[in-house]
Design brief:
By secondary structure, the chain is α/β, with parallel strands linked by helices. The protein has 2 domains: 2-83 and 158-239, 3-Layer(aba) Sandwich (Rossmann fold), CATH 3.40.50.300; 88-156. The protein is 35% helix and 30% strand. It has 10 helices and 12 strands. It has a 6-stranded mixed sheet, sandwiched between helices. A 4-stranded antiparallel sheet has the order 2-1-4-5, with helices on one face. Helix 3 runs parallel beside helix 6. The longest helix has 15 residues, at 141-155. It is globular and about 50 Å long. The relative contact order is 0.18.
Length: 240
């Protein structure tokens, strides 16, 4: 189980010199074997929370517990060893590294053709067309996003942090994307998303607004609350 206790994160405003809160007073629990979807307007701290969970940023207050252990101060590498896996909103490009090499680095072993097919077909890509391609600007944003998801699946782990995984997905159907998440349901999956279809598979929905955790709860309960809020983010969800 992953727990956040009174998490806060603030930065110094370079123009005014004053402290600016990005997150404050966040208390959350992510249970094993559940999918949680974090939603809310842009700039409300959702992506910052994902970076804090992975260790890219350190909270200015509060602590993070993983299976009862305080991991607030440990590094990204140490969290990866404990089973934390992340997929970014904007996929990282690796000039000179092929898709095959990237997948092998992720899982820590050599992969045969069948293993490559398993990883790439799960995100709608044909291994034969991609294993020798470089992970660089020759790939489209959608291709990079799928390869990043395949890399996360190849690495495995216990906690999957996915920041707007649907971004850049065009020809690949949403239903296939959802199937990938369903396969991870025995893990702790935390997704940042505005999409209603992704919210519909959540066990827990979390709403952020203006640096604050507004509310969190079971999907059915939260859908009722979201429809009652004059929230532009929810209208976007409804329209999509």
């Amino acid at each position: 189980m992953l727990e956040l206790k009174d998490i806060g994160y603030a930065v110094k405003d370079e123009r005014t010199g004053r402290k600016q809160d990005i997150l404050k007073g966040v208390d959350l629990c992510f249970k094993d074997g559940t999918i949680s979807v974090i939603t809310g307007p842009n700039g409300s701290g959702k992506s910052t929370l994902i970076k804090i969970l992975m260790g890219f940023e350190r909270p200015t207050s509060g602590k993070i517990l993983f299976d009862g252990e305080d991991i607030t101060g440990i590094s990204v590498t140490e969290r990866a060893r404990k089973g934390f896996t992340i997929a970014f909103q904007q996929p990282v490009r690796f000039k000179g590294i092929t898709v095959k090499k990237l997948l092998e680095l992720a899982c820590g072993k050599k992969l045969d053709t069948e293993g490559m097919c398993d990883c790439l077909s799960s995100v709608g890509l044909c291994a034969r067309n991609y294993i020798d391609r470089s992970v660089d600007g020759t790939l489209s944003g959608g291709e990079l996003k799928r390869i990043e998801l395949a890399t996360a699946i190849a690495k495995g782990g216990e906690v999957f942090l996915l920041d707007e995984p649907e971004a850049g997905i065009d020809l690949w159907s949403f239903e296939d994307l959802v199937k990938v998440f369903e396969k991870l349901r025995d893990k702790t999956v935390i997704i940042v998303s505005h999409q209603q279809r992704i919210l519909e598979i959540a066990d827990q929905v979390v709403l952020f607004e203006r640096d604050k955790l507004i509310c969190a709860g079971k999907r059915e309960e939260m859908f009722t609350k979201l429809t009652q809020r004059p929230n532009a983010c929810w209208r976007d969800i409804k329209e999509n």
